[in-house]
Amino acid sequence: MPVDGEEALVPVNAMERALTDLWARTTAEMTPDQRRTLKGAIDAMTESWVWELSNQLQNRVPDPVDYLEMRRATFGSDLTLSLCRMGHGPAVPPEVYRTGPVRSLENAAIDYACLLNDVFSYQKEIEYEGEIHNAILVVQHFFGIDYPAALSVVNDLMTQRMRQFEHVVAHELPVLYDDFELSEEARLAMAGYVLDLQNWMAGILNWHQRVDRYKADWLARRAHVFLPDRPPVPAALPVG
Q1: 134/100 Cα distance (integer angstroms)
Q2: Complete DSSP assignment for 124-178
Q3: Which domain holds residue 99?
Q4: DSSP H helices in 2-31
Q5: Is residue 74 part of a domain?
Q6: pLDDT tens digit string along 25-62?
């Protein structure tokens, strides 16, 4: 992923050629700083996938704190947000995005989306794939509780994150705008960014509700492929 005009590595197969082409076309009109931000986001995402692979090899279910922190990376959240910010142009100073309120807003949206995915994908990942990176399983394993109790814990966390998002929008961002003396253009751009995050969360929910991949009748046509040394399947599983 060349940032400032340096030559890309010579691809040796079709996938590498495709990725090289994708990077070149995606970043063609970006500044070096924007390319550097995007590269860092992709690096963080792929490194987090190595963390997941390591856990799978050790059959290690992560603890809730580690899981939530790393889930933001495995979900590709920084990648999504960096592209979203670029879409709003230079009206908003970069330092605004680095403030506590904006990071709190983003993390609340990210956590909500990640946990939502885990709720819908639980049966697919645990019963059919032997996956260990799912918030409900993490809570079950850490607290020694069953599926309904763990689902309730995750639901409470999702609710708290959504309330935090709404609180930041209503009470913290207006103060931030005044502190930075943002122009009307910058305030409108930030309002658009907030709307993008809201649409992102709503779109993820809508997709999970409608897609076939998590529905019981679609899953029933799949073979069980999980490895026998994975954590046992809890007694109660969701039906949808």
Answers
A1: 27
A2: IIIIIT-----HHHHHHHHHT--HHHHHHHHHHHHHHHHHHHHHIIIIIHHHHHH
A3: 63-219
A4: 14-26
A5: yes
A6: 999 988 898 899 899 999 999 999 999 999 989 989 99
- For residue 96, what is the domain's CATH number? 1.10.600.10
Extended strands (E) in 54-213: none
Is 177 a member of any domain?
Answer: yes
Q: What separation in angstroms does the CA of 166 have from each of 8, 102, 115, 197?
A: 43, 12, 17, 11
Extract the runs of DSSP E, i.e. beta strands, from 147-199.
none
Sign of CA dihedral 185, 189, 190, 194: positive
pLDDT tens digit string along 100-116?
A: 999 999 999 999 999 99
What is the reported pTM? Answer: 0.82
Asked whether 127 and 224 are in contact (CB, 8 A), the reply is yes
Instruction: Tell me the angle at which helices 64-74 and 77-86 cross, rounded to the nearest 10 degrees.
Output: 40
| All residues at 6 or more sequence positions from 106 whose CB lies less than 8 Å from its CB, including other chains | 77, 81, 197
Does some domain include residue 29?
A: no
Tell me how many domains the chain contains.
Answer: 1
The vertex-51 CA angle with 50 and 53, nearest 5°, equals: 60
Position 14 in a domain: no
φ/ψ (deg, to 5) at 75: -80, -10
Rg (CA), the chain: 20
Contact status, residue 136 vs residue 151, Cβ threshold 8 Å: yes
